[in-house]
Amino acid sequence: MNHRRKPLYEQVVDDITTSIQAGTLKPGDKLPSIAQLTVQYGISNTMIKFALRILGERGLIETHQGKGSFVASPPP
């Protein structure tokens, strides 16, 4: 049976989502920089930015220009 591997950006999304759900990353915590994540996952910064955009669209993180990405506060 052919098990297709997940795209690498999905691995980033899954890892960060899991960390937030587990409470390892808490609201207001700063995520590693794009450069750090690029090294950590061994993928291009384009893929990292794509993963961060998905996390942002899901309301899990907030990105502030020039400051970085942070875990979003839980919705009220």
Describe this structure in words.
- With 76 residues, the protein is mainly α.
- Helix content is 47%, strand content 11%.
- The protein has three helices and two strands; from the N terminus they run αααββ.
- The protein has helices spanning 8-22, 34-41, 45-57; strands spanning 61-64, 68-71.
- A two-stranded antiparallel sheet has the order 1-2.
Which helices and strands occur, and which strands form pairs?
Elements: H1 8-22, H2 34-41, H3 45-57, E1 61-64, E2 68-71
Helix pairs in contact: 1-3, 2-3
Helix content: 40-55%
Widest β-sheet, arrangement of strands? 1-2
Q: Nearest-angstrom radius of gyration?
A: 13 Å
Q: In total, how many beta strands?
A: 2
Distance between the termini: 44 Å
Task: Using brief descriptors, characterize the structure shown.
two-stranded antiparallel ribbon; 3 helices; mainly alpha; single chain; 76 residues
Task: Briefly say what this structure is.
By secondary structure, the chain is mainly alpha-helical.
